Amino acid sequence: MRIIDVETMRRLEAETIAAGTSGYRLMRRAGEGAAELIREFAGNRFRRAVVLAGGGNNGGDALVVAALLDMPVTVYATRPLTELRGEARQAARDLPDHVHVEERTELDDSDFRPGDLIVDGLLGTGFAGELRPQFRNYIEVANRSGQPVVAMDLPSGINGDTGVADSGAAVEAALTVTFGYPKRGLFHGDGPRCSGRLRLVDIGLNAVEPGVGYGEAFFAADARRELPRFAFDIHKNLRGRLLIAAGSREYSGAAVLAANAALRTGAGMVRLAMPVSPRLPLPAALIFREFPAGREGCFAAEAARELTPWLEASSAVAAGSGWGDGPGLAEVLERLLDFPGPLLLDADALNLLSRRPELRRRRGTLVITPHPGEAHRLARGFGIPESADRIEFACALAERLHAVTLLKGARTVVAAPDGRWSVNSSGCADLAAAGSGDVLSGTVGALLAMRPDAPFEMTALGAWLHGMAGELGGRGLIADDLPGLVRLAVGGIAAGSASF
Ligand SMILES: NC(=O)C1=CN([C@@H]2O[C@H](COP(=O)(O)OP(=O)(O)OC[C@H]3O[C@@H](n4cnc5c(N)ncnc54)[C@H](OP(=O)(O)O)[C@@H]3O)[C@@H](O)[C@H]2O)[C@@H](O)CC1
Ligand SMILES: Nc1ncnc2c1ncn2[C@@H]1O[C@H](COP(=O)(O)OP(=O)(O)O)[C@@H](O)[C@H]1O
Ligand SMILES: [K+]
Fold this sequence. Notes:
Blueprint: H1 6-18, H2 23-42, E1 48-53, H3 57-68, E2 73-77, H4 86-93, E3 100-103, E4 116-121, H5 133-144, E5 149-152, E6 175-179, H6 191-195, E7 197-201, E8 216-218, H7 220-226, E9 241-245, H8 252-265, E10 269-274, E11 287-290, H9 302-306, H10 308-312, E12 316-319, H11 329-337, E13 343-345, H12 347-355, E14 366-368, H13 372-382, H14 390-401, E15 404-407, E16 413-415, E17 421-424, H15 436-450, H16 455-473, H17 482-494
Parallel strand pairs: 1-2, 1-4, 2-3, 4-5, 5-6, 6-7, 8-17, 9-10, 9-12, 10-11, 12-13, 13-14, 14-15
Antiparallel strand pairs: 15-16, 16-17
């Protein structure tokens, strides 16, 4: 989905309205979509919704939500609802009697209590200039309450174009529901930190013209389009044959996590090559072999030659998780780089490549999945200037290494050597846990094995499925849980579920 700036958003709204859809119709669609997502997010955890309504259309969206929630609702309005204009005025008129409205110049801590779900409809794309004291007060008290906030369109206080909280205060949302198209500010500056989980509601805006906009963000609709679909009578050999070359004596768990994830993502056949026998039980569905190890418990150089029959039997390879560091690994890496299909390199394979950039030659597609530390080492090794802007940095790595580059973190970026890039919308802080990257490498590897011809799309899809698995797991998640949750995310998308 194309990322756009505020001016383009206004133009598309105006054009859609001129083409015959009323502004209020658009606002209703936004509010209805948001209310549905809030119901799903909230479950039965909350006793009351507190809706913060500013004086513009962002407030109007929140009033539509207030009318639709099936729990007690209190609206704190920054100005009398009778002073609202246009569509927001209409939304105020349509509020049912049971919604309790208070016009408040100021809020204090006692205005929120445990069991509240806060809806932020203070400021959206119309926010400009210095935050007025009343809005700053609303934002600060809401953040201080510790109750989860769902932001309408943008977290209030965030500039829709730059993502910067220019006035030093912005809503820290648990969930942001953005309307029509994702705005640029959600992906820069304070945007990723303040927006929390991200969802998009289609409000039927005119389509953005090709070439307009700024890059792509990957949402559930993109996952629905990209997920490989199989004929009813497919054979396992056509569902992707992945070789995972991973692990060491010290880090055998990494290999097992990657293998589980690849199987649960739906690869037809997964082979796991390790330099040791894992101390953990392996899934029976896995094909496993122990390869020669050096003294330090890592792959020995002889493993490079012995891998040949397995490489010939595979449609993609994922390598590097838990490799550790040993003298034989460079030869193994060289052998893998000769593999003609897609090769995913992660973790220690990337660190090795950073130290030995001359090894970078390739017949097939290379996909790299660095976390920020590994990306930093690659930048040093390959002489790439580091950029504080993660999108720019991922693009520079992709271009220099001629590799589809997945730069991990909140709002993971996937960049292609040809300049395309896509920011992932799914994911949450619960993914910041040991082993979660190993699962990602198995998931992306499986998708590359299924669709070797679409490495950029499959890598972006893998990031989305992994992020969604994290969201499904939530607090207390450990990497061992993730493969099963990836399966649920894949299953939900494949079955056309309305969730996500
Ligand atoms: N149009 C459509 O069809 C659709 C629009 N949609 C929704 O509308 C949103 C855009 O609405 P918008 O343009 O009304 O602006 P909005 O974000 O509510 O902000 C304006 C308000 O903020 C105030 N304000 C401004 N600066 C301020 C400051 N520094 N400090 C404090 N206050 C400040 C300003 O106050 P005023 O200057 O009027 O006193 C005014 O009250 C968009 O994000 C989306 O949610 C969806 O429903 C889809 C259909
Ligand atoms: N704050 C966060 N929000 C969303 N995703 C995150 C966050 N922190 C980490 N992740 C994701 O978790 C994974 C961590 O991978 P990595 O750092 O390689 O972990 P490990 O090496 O322990 O497996 C990546 O997919 C990354 O994008
Ligand atoms: K908002």
